[in-house]
Write a structure and sequence with these properties.
Strand content: 15-25%
Number of strands: 4
Pfam family, one: Smr
Number of domains: 1
Oligomer: single chain
Order of helices and strands: EHEHEEH
Structural class: alpha+beta
CATH topology: Ribosomal Protein S8, Chain: A, domain 1
Organism: Leptospira yanagawae
InterPro entries: Smr_dom, Smr_dom_sf
Helix content: 40-55%
Protein name: DNA mismatch repair protein
Length: about 90
């Protein structure tokens, strides 16, 4: 599972990094991505959730906040072909 660190970044920098790294994870055949946004005022968290909602190949993994290990991160599932299939396309 890949972790994307956008904590302590400005909104636009965080959005750009999130888009780039999710694209890279998709092309590498990753199935889950953890977005580490921190707690703060919730601006980066909301931006990450909104971005996931706009992408058809991403699914927000809902978990009960009582059992979540880190409230400063969001877990996202990438609904994509397998790593082997993507490697065949790259070749």
């Amino acid at each position: 599972m890949r972790t994307i660190y956008i904590r302590k970044l400005r909104f636009e920098e965080a959005r750009t990094k999130l888009e780039r790294e999710i694209h890279d994870a998709f092309m590498d055949g990753e199935t889950y991505v953890e977005i580490l946004h921190g707690i703060g005022e919730g601006i980066l968290r909301q931006m990450a959730i909104d971005y996931v909602a706009t992408c058809g190949f991403l699914k927000l993994v809902e978990s009960d906040p009582m059992f979540r290990q880190n409230p400063g991160c969001t877990l996202v599932e990438i609904l994509a072909p397998s790593k082997e299939y993507i490697n065949r396309l790259k070749a």
